[in-house]
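Posting this for the archive.
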Amino acid sequence: MGLGSGKVGFLPDVLYEEVVKWLPIVSVEALFVVDDALLFLKRNNDPVKGKWWFPGGRVRRGESLEEALQRAWSRAASGLALQN
């Protein structure tokens, strides 16, 4: 399933699948080590909804990798704060 699904501001699924087939989609994921353990978050969105995954997400146009990770982290509502 693409990012369409009738949501405002998203491409229709058919068009999204065509774009993905031809263009790379830049994303950012982070590895966090907390007390000698890796941190994973349970995904809320496709393509791996319900699976444990690294925190991260897609990079939006004009956004730095750091900004994208900060946005994805705040969206996850993890209750933890990122620090530089």
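The mean pLDDT is 80. The radius of gyration is 14 Å.
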